[in-house]
Give the backbone structure.
Amino acid sequence: MSELFIAARALVAGEERREVAFLVEKGRFSKIGDAKSLAIEAARRGTKTRRFPEDRLLVPGFINGHSHAYQVLLRGWADDWSFDRWRSDALYRVVPQLTPEDIYWVFVFAFSEMLAAGITTVAEFFYLNGAGNAHAEAAIRAARETGIRLVFARTWMDAAYAPDAYRETIEEAQSRSEELLAAHADINFCVAPHSLHAASPAMIEAAAAFAAEHDCMLHVHVAEAAYEGAATLSEHGATPIRLLDRLGALNERCVAIHAIYIDEEEQALLAARGARVIHNPMTNQYLGDGICDISGLRALGVAIGLGTDADVKPSAIDEMRAASLLQKIARTDGAAFGARSAFDLATASGARALRLDAGRFEEGAFADFVVLDARAIDPWAPAVNALVYRGEDAWVQGSFVGGKRVAGREPSPAAIAARERLRGIAERLIP
């Protein structure tokens, strides 16, 4: 089946274009061009056509490069804590108690929030694997039923301090990952050794070998806090990025989550190895982590995306704004990291960071896009500037994945049911 979408206004590669049309076939953009000529061709072929008027703006679907959906249960009551307390008294207390059924409803809730905010792809960093794949299967089912495009980053974790619900042997992680790959060939699966402190060097080496064998990406938390660099240097004689390189995990498959506390040589090493970075500016502020030098990394050609991480508020618009403003503060330069650069992180660059054909209006790419209410955009303002510096999630009128509308302004019946189910889960688990 095919459908032609005609936009009076659209952001194509960050530039506003007028009267542009997108032909969607088999879930991908097959033709992009002048609305009039493509409309004539569509009429001749009897292709279904949908038009979005002047008060709507079409943008590529936002890419959420790093999420922990179950952490929506921590927001509100575990705010304003130190990271150590937040991890031990909230994260490690609540999440291990979630059943597969709980996971399904929590993830339906979180994914519905993302879709309502224009996030059409999410890379979910999933670490409830200690008892097998039942929890992971529930998360994948939630993604399928909400319609969000899923990148499933299955965590490998063997640290002695981790809860039993997270921890596995290398052999268990390998075999269970292979089972998921075999059962879900259609999902974007990647392996995710948790971090340099929660996965042993042997586990990280095994994960890198697994990624190479199965041609998948490798996601890893790295250099999120200053203590990690001191710890890896003391224990292994290398700082985090250098240690990843030594373990054979720093290459074009590597997606480094956070990458805050790295020096200029490590930045250059990231770029030389072709690794990618996911920046999480809102969570970095929330947990007091620090500011990633995305300006420096971007200048070196590193593909960078944005993530909502702790999902305090899963909003790509908020992440774009924070990414830009934090760079201006860090560099004390109002010209640093402008709106178009921030928009690119949430769309095309974010998709490149995940090795995914999305995030852009381009022939052959997944037909994932968002319809925004353009009435709040000042007529004299570039649309991309208005979106990054003044935009709100309420501007999102509809989210399309593979050319199909999967979310609108009104919550779906599943989202409504999930909110009610979350109430019971929270009452049972939150102290």
About this structure: The chain has 16 helices and 16 strands.
